[in-house]
Amino acid sequence: MLREFKLKTNAEDLHSITQPVAEAVRESGVGEGICVVYCPHTTAGITINENADPDVVTDLLLGLRKAFPDRPEFCHDEGNSAAHLKASAVGLSVTIPIADGRLLLGTWQGVYFCEFDGPRNRTYYVQVS
Ligand code: ZN
Fold first, then answer.
1. How confident is the model over 24-67, as pLDDT tens digits?
2. Partner residues linked to 52 by β-bridges
3. Ligand 1 centroid to 91 CA: how many Å?
4. What is the enclosing helix (H) or strand (E) of 58?
5. What's the pTM?
6. For residue 110, how far is its CA from the centre of ligand 1 (angstroms)?
7. Residues flanking ion ligand 1, Cβ below 5 Å
8. How remote is the CA of residue 43 from the centroid of ligand 1, in Å?
9. Ligand 1 centroid vs 95 CA: distance in angstroms?
10. What DSSP character marks residue 38?
11. Could you give the dihedral angle defined by the CA atoms of residues 69, 72, 75 and 76, in that order, rounded to the nearest 10 degrees?
């Protein structure tokens, strides 16, 4: 089963998508399998990280900004090379096992859509099999 989701993002943001992904798994009726969450963009990504303390998301974004600053020597005309770098570093998809009809996420784990060049209208896909 493949589901498409739409998302309106902020300038730079880790947007929790755990709920819609979990619902897609429930709707699929798959008891044991694999869930792939995929983002078809080049300046956004998908990651799994802590869902409890919102400061973790703040620190992730701060760390990525420090690791991948905008540089005057970048060649890409669009001027968003730092966002492309962050997207490649974070990755464009995650794979989560399904057991007993549920995502096998740890207690403190959540799934995030990572926007690095917003605000934009974005799409992500959830494949359950
Ligand atoms: Zn670009």
1. 999 999 999 999 999 999 999 999 999 999 999 999 999 999 99
2. none
3. 16
4. helix 54-67
5. 0.96
6. 28
7. 78, 80
8. 7
9. 26
10. E
11. 50
